[in-house]
Design goal:
The chain has a three-stranded parallel beta sheet with strand order 1-2-3. The protein contains seven helices and three strands, in the order E-H-H-E-H-H-H-E-H-H. With 130 residues, it is mainly alpha-helical. It folds into two domains: 94 residues, no CATH class; 34 residues.
């Protein structure tokens, strides 16, 4: 079986939340599955995790102060290392980016998805991931 791991699962594994147990259970129930993710998900997880990192330290309040913090400090190595370690620990395969605009728009419009979510759906469909 092939299983795509999205941003929400990674986030709830990286941080203690009310959904952490659920994220762990999903992985346990699919322990024999081949696990995949995409560069879109990597982008989302690093962005949101970095926002939380800076917010927890009182450096940002919203997206504009976050952009300033990113320009000044960049992505914290601690955040990047925690995420890349999780990818390695879970044996995640990163799917290569490939887009066809017509296919992307068809999926986006048919399923009422944001462009980045449609990109993930197209990638899963092309790699045979349900």
């Amino acid at each position: 079986m092939r299983l795509f791991i999205g941003s929400n699962v990674f986030y709830n594994l990286l941080f203690a939340t009310e959904l952490t147990a659920t994220a762990r259970r999903v992985l346990e129930e699919h322990e024999s599955a081949d696990l995949y993710t995409s560069f879109v998900v990597v982008n989302e997880v690093l962005y949101v995790s970095t926002f939380k990192y800076y917010r927890d330290r009182g450096l940002v309040k919203g997206r504009y102060s976050f952009r300033r913090a990113l320009a000044r400090h960049g992505y914290p190595r601690r955040v990047v290392a925690a995420f890349t370690s999780l990818l390695e620990e879970l044996g995640i395969t990163l799917l290569s980016d490939w887009q066809d605009l017509e296919e992307l728009l068809e999926v986006m419009l048919s399923y009422r998805l944001q462009p980045s979510d449609a990109q993930i759906a197209v990638k899963c469909r092309r790699h045979g991931i349900a």
